[in-house]
Amino acid sequence: MAPFPGSGLAKGLAVTLRTMTRKTVTEQYPEVQPELPPRTRGVIGLFEENCTVCMLCARECPDWCIYIDSHKETVPAATPGGRERSRNVLDRFAIDFSLCMYCGICIEVCPFDALFWSPEFEYAETDIRDLTHERDKLREWMWTVPAPPALDPGAEEPKELAAARRTAEKLAAQQQPPATEPHADEQARAAESPTRPHGDSQQQSEQPRPQQEGTE
Ligand code: SF4
Ligand code: SF4
C-alpha cells in the first residue's frame, strides 16, 4: 500500500518537535566547568614526602611511562654505638601522560600513599614532550586532589589517620619547653643555708592560739 502523501513530512516534523521539547544535555564548556564525579581520573599527583623510591609503581606500569631516578644516602646512627643506615633519595620522578592510559595501577600498588588521582584534565599541550610532568608539576597537582569522603558515623578510624595523629601528638610533646628546674647555684645555696622549719609549721607556730572559752 502506497504511503499517505505528506506522511514523511509529518514524521520528520514530529521528530523535530520531540527534540525541541527535550531537555538539552550540551555542556557549555569552557564557559561552564563540568561537574565531575569525585573519582574522576584526570591527572596523577605525587605526594613526594611519602615516596620511598620503592619503584613498585614504575615496575607495574603497563606503559612504562613512569621515570624514577634516585641515589643512596647514608644516615648516621641515631644512638651512640648504633648502626648507620642507608636510604633512597629521590632525584627524579616523572610521568609521561602522552603514554599513560589512566589505568590507575600505579596508584593502586603504591604501598605508601604517594600517588593520587586528581580530577584536573586541562593540561593539553601543543608539544607532546610537555606532557611529561616532572616531580614539581606532579606535586602541584596534589593541591587539586579532592578530600576523601567522610567516614560513616561510628566507623573505625583508618590506621593511617591514627598513626598520623599519634606522631603529631608526639612532636607536640617534644616541642613543649621542659619544666623549669632550680639552677645549680640556687640548689647549692639552698643546701648551705641553715635549715628552716617547714613553711606551714612556721605559720602555725606564729598564729595566735585561740583562747579557750571561760579562761579570763
Ligand atoms: S595510570 Fe597506568 S599507565 Fe598511567 S602511569 Fe599509572 S600505571 Fe602507568
Ligand atoms: S610505588 Fe609509591 S613509594 Fe614506591 S616509588 Fe612509586 S610512588 Fe614512590
UniProtKB/TrEMBL annotation:
Localization terms from the record: Cell membrane
One GO cellular component, as annotated: plasma membrane
Classification via Gene3D superfamilies: 3.30.70.3270
Keyword list, A-Z: 4Fe-4S, Cell membrane, Iron, Iron-sulfur, Membrane, Metal-binding, NAD, Oxidoreductase, Quinone, Repeat, Translocase, Ubiquinone
Enzyme class: translocase
GO molecular function per UniProt: 4 iron, 4 sulfur cluster binding; iron ion binding; NADH dehydrogenase (quinone) (non-electrogenic) activity; quinone binding
Membrane topology: Peripheral membrane protein
Catalytic activity: a quinone + NADH + 5 H(+)(in) = a quinol + NAD(+) + 4 H(+)(out)
Binding site for [4Fe-4S] cluster 2: C61, C100, C103, C106
All residue ranges annotated as the 4Fe-4S ferredoxin-type domain in the record: 42-71, 91-120
Region (Disordered), start-end ranges: 146-216
Keyword set includes Glycoprotein: no
Record-stated family: Belongs to the complex I 23 kDa subunit family.
Subunit structure, as described in the record: NDH-1 is composed of 14 different subunits. Subunits NuoA, H, J, K, L, M, N constitute the membrane sector of the complex.
Function: NDH-1 shuttles electrons from NADH, via FMN and iron-sulfur (Fe-S) centers, to quinones in the respiratory chain. The immediate electron acceptor for the enzyme in this species is believed to be ubiquinone. Couples the redox reaction to proton translocation (for every two electrons transferred, four hydrogen ions are translocated across the cytoplasmic membrane), and thus conserves the redox energy in a proton gradient.
Protein name: NADH-quinone oxidoreductase subunit I
Source species: Streptomyces glaucescens
